[in-house]
Amino acid sequence: MATILRFVSRARRTAQSSFAPSRCSIFTTARRLADPWPLPGSPEHLASTETPSDEARIQPLERPNESLGTLRARLVYQSRKRGTLESDLLLSTFARDNLKNMSEEELKQYDKLLDEPDWDIYYWATGKRTPPDRWANTALLEQLKVHARNEGKVVRRMPSL
Q1: Where is this region: Disordered (predicted)?
Q2: From CA 66, how far away is CA 52, in angstroms rounded?
Q3: In a domain, 97, yes or no
Q4: Which residue, among 57, 38, 150, has the nearest Cα to 112 in the 3D structure?
Q5: In the predicted structure, residue 157 carries a pLDDT above the cut 70
Q6: Distance of CA 34 to the CA centre of its chain
Q7: What are the CA-CA distances from residue 108 to residues 66, 87, 90, 101, 113 (Å)?
Q8: What is the pLDDT of residues 103-138, one digit of tens each?
Q9: CA nearest neighbour of 108 among 145, 59, 71, 73
Q10: What SS3 class is residue 81?
Q11: 91, 114 Cβ separation under 8 angstroms
Q12: How many domains does the chain have?
């Protein structure tokens, strides 16, 4: 009986000393590898959301006979329902403040801007990435950058549809 007790206690000590540290080291090592949800604007997020230049883009639908009212309504909806909260807030408040004063040409340009990927628009507007040549010196993107800076420190909320 004493032999069995000595064997069990020795086995328990061996198991505790060899198992516990390796188990802890697995969890601490896994935590250090990478953040699964990097914050927008962080270098990790900027690198992971960059749109490849050779990516095949889906061509948007042509709408040759769309009325101005329908165009505005569609742009309001597309500004509000982007897919990322950051883009939704930025573009929907921009649309609420500016779409009613835009000309038809400016509305068509805004429509083309909305065909770009969400994170690209967000980072161009916030100045984290340089926009491509087709958007670099446009008045629309400059307006969006001013809106994104929010120099008046206005608390913004999603507008209703």
Answers
A1: 36-64
A2: 32
A3: yes
A4: 57
A5: yes
A6: 18
A7: 11, 19, 19, 13, 9
A8: 999 999 999 999 999 999 999 999 999 999 999 999
A9: 71
A10: coil
A11: yes
A12: 1
Structural domain of 143: 67-161
Res 55: pLDDT = 63
The answer to whether the CB of 121 falls within 8 A of the CB of 89 is no
pLDDT tens sequence across 18-52: 555 555 555 555 556 677 777 877 888 777 777 77
Residue owning tokens 């490849």:
52
18 found inside a domain: no
Residue 135 in domain: yes
Contact 127, 90 (CB under 8 A): no
CATH number of the domain where residue 147 is located: 1.10.150.250
Rg, the chain, Cα only: 27
Residue 117 burial by CB count (10 A; 0-12/13-18/19+): exposed, middle or buried? middle
| Positive/negative CA dihedral, 62, 126, 142, 78 | positive
In a domain, 92, yes or no: yes
Nearest to 138 by CA among 101, 160, 159, 108: 108
The one-letter code for the residue type at 113 is L
Q: 74 phi and psi, to 5 degrees?
A: -65, -40
CB neighbourhood size of 144 (10 A): 23
